[in-house]
Amino acid sequence: MRAAGEYDDYGPDLDLKSYLDLSLDAALRSPSALVRALAVVDRRLGNRRLRALSMKREHSLVKTLHAARYVEEFLRDAGRRRLR
């Protein structure tokens, strides 16, 4: 149930609390889609690793946040190049 992104009343709360103590690697490997989604937008995740992540079999929330972060990083990099 948790891997599919479905929760009971306390599931998301427990996942959010546990995320605070996880390393980035552990968060990206978590069975919880919510934790993996947070890891994708975590600033500890660098650009190279963001680009290398496979989204083929991911939950839609993780895919959506990955795409948003990817676009944001691309636009930020493009803006830096233009200012030079």
Brief account:
This protein has 84 residues and is mainly α.
Could you describe the 3D structure shown?
- 63% of the residues lie in helices and 0% in strands.
- It has helices spanning 11-19, 24-28, 33-41, 47-52, 60-83.
- The chain is elongated and about 50 Å long.
Structural class: mainly alpha
Q: What is the overall pLDDT average?
A: 87
Unreliable spans = none
Number of alpha- plus pi-helical segments:
5
Chart the SSEs and their pairings:
Elements (H helix, E strand, L loop, with lengths): L10 H9 L4 H5 L4 H9 L5 H6 L7 H24 L1
Helix pairs in contact: 3-5
What brief labels describe this structure?
mainly alpha, 0% strand
